[in-house]
Amino acid sequence: MQYEVVGVQFKQVGKKYFFDPNGFDLKQGDHVLVETIRGMEFGTVVINPKMVDEEDVFLPLKPVMRIATEEDVQKHYQNKADEAHAIETCEALIIKNKLDMHLLGCEYTFDRTKLIFYFTAEGRVDFRQLIKVYAETFRIRIEMKQIGARQEAGRIGGTGPCGRELCCSTWMTNFSSVGTGAARLQNISPNPQKLAGMCAKLKCCLNYEMPVYEDATKDMPSRHTPIETQDGTYYFFSSDPLAGKITYSSDAHMPANLQTISVARAKEMIAMNK
User: Taking CA 37 as the corner, what is the angle to CA 35 and CA 38, rounded to the nearest 5 degrees?
Assistant: First the structure.
């Protein structure tokens, strides 16, 4: 079964969510008001209406309430302007209450029924008293949301070692787990300073070329299989999967008499050994 959906985004860089167009003639770039778990929210159409399979949507689909009016757009920008004042007030209260937390930003829900603050902290922060003070100050429901280092880098932005803007602040919508195995497979030196991104976590780009390297290593012989030659036994030392080359050493524990051969030749020699 298929459903007609429209893709809506709430932030310049963020997830795209599917909603029921609800009969509205929508196109990319239109501002709309949609129903969410947080209530009515202001968003922008980033994917034109289309049909998708049932397994690609979360049911029941929330509907587009209406196309945003000029008044709605002005209200949205007023909320954004008021957030700057809320941040200043919040930072002053954090200092006053001597809380070990770093404020990153805040946002009002469209209907201004809730004000959400985003922060990072090394450990658990008891901000119950702070929420009470906030509620009295802003006369609104307050929510404190702790986020991780990757999300923090995405919100702040910056330039990566590649010279381009951070992926997490320009186009990434989901964060995937990054392991050191990705670096080992790509023969990247396990240097923490080189492997870490602006967030001090492993670079997300380590995952980008993983499928290519995984395909390239499928037909390579096991690194645990030595090669017997007339000159002695040679052991795996390193490999270049994309070039289809393997380097062997005559010493199992250190580089010695290194010999680089093609994957095809290595497999041929291992077969001859058998």
Answer: 90
How high is the pLDDT of residue 89? 84
Name the H helices within 7-127: 70-96
Cis peptide before 190 (omega within 30 of 0): no
Q: Residue 263's pLDDT is what?
A: 92
DSSP state of 254: S
Q: Is 165 helix (H, G, I), strand (E, B) or coil?
A: strand
State the pTM of this model: 0.59
Tokens 């985004």, residue located = 9
State the Cα torsion 113-110-81-21 to the nearest 10°: 170
Round to the nearest angstrom and report the end-to-end CA distance of the chain.
55
Residue 23 one-letter amino acid: G
The pLDDT tens digits of the residues spanning 204-241 come to 888 888 888 888 888 889 889 999 999 899 999 988 88
